[in-house]
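Minutes, project check-in
Item: structure for the 409-residue chain
Input as provided by the requester:
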Amino acid sequence: MRDPSSDKKNVIGIIIVAALGYFVDVYDLILFSVVRKPSLVSLGITGDHQIDVGVMLLNWQMAGMLIGGILWGVLGDKKGRISVLFGSIFLYSAANIANGFVQDVPTYAMLRFIAGIGLAGELGAGITLVSEIMPKESRGWGTTIVATVGLLGAVVAALIANKFDWRVSYFIGGAMGLALLILRISVYESGMYKNIKDKNVSKGNFIKLFTNKARFFKFSKCILIGLPTWFVVGVLVTFSDKFAEAFGLNVPINPAQSIMYTYIGIVIGDFVSGYMSQVMRSRKKVVLIFLFMNFVCITVYLYFNHFGSTFFYFMCGALGFANGYWAVFVTNASEQFGTNYRATVTTAVPNIIRGTTVPMTLSFQFFREYLGIVNGAVIVAVIALAIAVIATVRMEETFGKDLDYVEVT
């Protein structure tokens, strides 16, 4: 019987739905960073206390994503990719609508945690599904489209937040998510997954990623190559107004604008990195190139960023471009493992990377207290970049790898 997911029309439809799903996912994910300042002011949090409360709320959201990344990944391999697409988007849409009604910080934190759990499932399930339905030589194009279109959600979040009250911005995100559920009705499950669904093989066993030494190191390297991405977004850009003050800029910097320009850069970078990985027929080489650009842009941002708001926002865009290898490393994670563990890994990896925002922001807070905001950021940046480079050099090249197999050990 012909697999309907392999038909060209259905392949295009699945890519579009996955891309729009990730668009709403990123909109809701980034929205807190965009509305952090006005929402906290509305709740009576002002001055330097905003950094502490902002970090706490961001960490609750990222902790939720860390838990959700494991939960949805396991469900994706045990119950199917489509079930995750439905469940995750419903949860984070409902949480974000509720977020528009918050009146105190504890409730805000609880809802960011719940939203984080929901947000964790979308990208991994979408990338896994697209990777499994496309030919091995061209699947990079499909995942690049998903990531590039999806990351535009951050730009829209910034634009919406500049036009509407922060509560309305949360309502809009939740409404977009619920509307997207209608499109999910026409999405087919991948043929690769259906071939193993009823077979007696271990599926979605998260513990087994740690019980086999080779599998554990492979999984770890998939995570570590992405460390700089959320250091940049979670620290340098989210708290861009505080960095601008430390740089002595005499004009106010709007974090919403910083995030918008950063994600414009990420969108462009993701398209370029995806294109380069197809042309160069390599994931590793592209990641190393973008890590080097990260080093250059972080150095300029922290030490040579004293030339006014225009240059500051330009550097936010440059940082975004240098971090635009998201599609490549998530695709790489999907290509590293067999069908019975693919959704678990592909969903867990980006969310564990997002979850590393917690130790990185806490480390930043620690070093900032003793060394100042700039030097504190430098130490965390150097550690993240060094770890990412080592992990990339040692990981397997996966371009063109056949994905129709299972992990049996």
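Outcome recorded: DSSP finds 19 helices and no strands in the chain.
No further action items on this chain.
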